[in-house]
From TrEMBL:
The keyword Cytoplasm applies. Belongs to the SelA family. This is L-seryl-tRNA(Sec) selenium transferase. The keyword Transferase applies. It catalyses: L-seryl-tRNA(Sec) + selenophosphate + H(+) = L-selenocysteinyl-tRNA(Sec) + phosphate. Its cofactor is pyridoxal 5'-phosphate. Its main location: cytoplasm. It holds the Pfam family Se-cys_synth_N. The modification N6-(pyridoxal phosphate)lysine is found at K284. Pathway: Aminoacyl-tRNA biosynthesis; selenocysteinyl-tRNA(Sec) biosynthesis; selenocysteinyl-tRNA(Sec) from L-seryl-tRNA(Sec) (bacterial route): step 1/1. The lineage of its organism: Bacteria, Bacillati, Actinomycetota, Actinomycetes, Mycobacteriales. Keywords: Cytoplasm, Protein biosynthesis, Pyridoxal phosphate, Selenium, Transferase.
Length: 443
């Protein structure tokens, strides 16, 4: 070690800020971010973890790596299609393109021909009506919970929401439907028992205080055994006769039936059965952006759209654009993953396994996102040592495997086939790192 302080050789801040790499980075990053990165690299050198001469290159490399968002893309190898912790639905290319278009000035609330203001998101509403013909009209809000809040507030604030005790669900992360409805100023009128609710229960509860009857899809669990529930069609005869609005919270957002998910409700079927209004999420099985959909009778949609709360939960232009493109566009990644051909999944898994020296085992994927509980999606997984999981999660690209019973499993259902080569490289790198680690080689 030199007797002069090597820290004096660390390049000065102004010199580093003048690097071409810093100038280039300013196209993406604010000055304060560039400065912070420069200071962090200098700090590493001061702490002796970086040679002073290496500082300019390290600054350039760190700036180049730093993206404007800290969110990291993840290859979802869990087999869970709508993965809440990974942002639910990955968008279709058409929706991504629409996001780009909508990112500038757009005519989201403007009639360009007339030069006057128009209603917001008309094209998205029309696209939803076209995709779900029994819907008289449609409205888009921020998420499924907001759709439910808007519906119950506009139809039942100060009055009663009649709902079966078997449908008072918690959706996840402490979001409980009864608490949500109570927060709207509507009173819950619970009917029936946890496992059984009959038409007479509803009939006895409906009266002058009823704001609406709510039917909730218990999307994340199943009650089996001695159970009974009243279907929408039966309920609709009752509410129709009483002039009471029937609202169905479907959760998943299928606009029409999907043969792969026979028990999953869809908007068209629910409306045909007699629901006056359905609510659903945009980013579950519909495969679009986070959004809440309201579909149904146009007079009710108009009432909801006029309610002051509608302004507080309205969707932004990016959501409207991506949702429209999802509905009018082709196959979404969610639909593709749900319908993935098991034989093809097996071939891809086998290829990966052969390349890295692993094995393949049968593995069921899941719908996820609180949808279709217990519906297995038959497929395959590459079987790897459990110790590989943290290396895969923190590698580049980041890969999220499923860790189950001491094994690290890679189910390719939700990995685009175009990413197979990158995934294989990530697995090979992680295996090499693991082997090096086990050999006692720290580096
Ligand atoms: C997911 C879900 C919701 C909430 O939708 P978000 O889009 O998450 O706000 C409401 N109801 C049901 C039945 C659901 O499955």
């Amino acid at each position: 070690m030199n007797h002069t302080d090597p820290r004096r050789a660390i390049p000065r801040t102004d010199a580093l800020l003048a690097l071409p790499a810093a100038t280039a980075a300013r196209a993406r990053l604010g000055e304060h971010v560039v400065r912070t990165i420069v200071h962090e690299v200098q700090q590493r050198a001061r702490a002796g973890r970086l040679a002073p001469a290496a500082v300019p290159d390290a600054v350039a490399a760190t700036l180049a790596e730093r993206s404007a968002t800290a969110l990291r893309p993840v290859l979802n190898a869990t087999g869970v299609v709508v993965h809440t912790n990974l942002g639910r639905a990955p968008l279709a290319p058409a929706a991504v393109e629409a996001l780009r278009t909508a990112s500038g000035y757009v005519d989201v609330e403007m009639d360009l021909a007339g030069g006057v203001r128009s209603a917001r998101g008309l094209a998205t509403r029309a696209a939803l009506r076209d995709a779900c013909p029994p819907a008289g009209d449609a409205l888009v809000v921020n998420n499924g919970a907001a759709a439910l809040v808007l519906a119950t507030t506009a139809l039942a604030a100060g009055r009663e929401v009649v709902v079966s005790r078997g449908e008072l669900i918690e959706i996840g992360a402490g979001f409980r439907l009864p608490e949500l409805i109570a927060a709207t100023g509507a009173r819950l009128r619970e009917v029936g028992a946890t496992n059984r609710t009959h038409l007479e229960d509803y009939a006895a509860a409906i009266g002058p205080a009823t704001g609406c009857v709510l039917k909730v899809h218990t999307s994340n669990f199943r009650i089996e055994g001695f159970t009974s529930a009243v279907g929408l069609a039966e309920l609709a005869r009752l509410t129709g006769a009483g002039g009471v609005a029937l609202v169905a919270d479907l959760g998943s957002g299928l606009l029409g039936p999907d043969p792969v998910l026979p028990d999953e409700p869809d908007a068209a079927t629910a409306l045909r059965a007699g629901a006056d209004l359905v609510t659903a999420s945009g980013d579950k099985l519909l495969g679009g952006p986070q959004a809440g959909l309201l579909l149904g009778r146009s007079d009710l949609i108009a009432t909801l759209a006029r309610h002051p709360l509608a302004r507080a939960v309205r969707a932004d232009k990016l959501t409207l654009a991506a949702l429209e493109a999802t509905v009018t566009g082709g196959l979404t990644p969610v639909t593709a993953a749900l319908h993935a051909d098991p034989a093809r999944l097996r071939r891809r898994a086998q290829h990966l396994a052969d390349t890295v020296g692993a094995t393949v085992d049968a593995h069921d994927g899941r719908v996820g996102g609180g949808g279709a509980p217990g519906v297995p999606l038959a497929g395959w997984a590459v079987v790897l040592p459990e110790a590989l999981a943290p290396l895969l999660r923190t590698g580049t690209p980041a890969v999220l495997p499923r860790v189950h019973r001491g094994r690290c499993l890679l189910d390719l259902r939700c990995v685009p086939e175009s990413e197979d080569a990158r995934l294989t490289a990530a697995v090979a790198a992680a295996l090499a790192a693991l082997a090096a680690d086990r050999d006692g080689d720290p580096g």
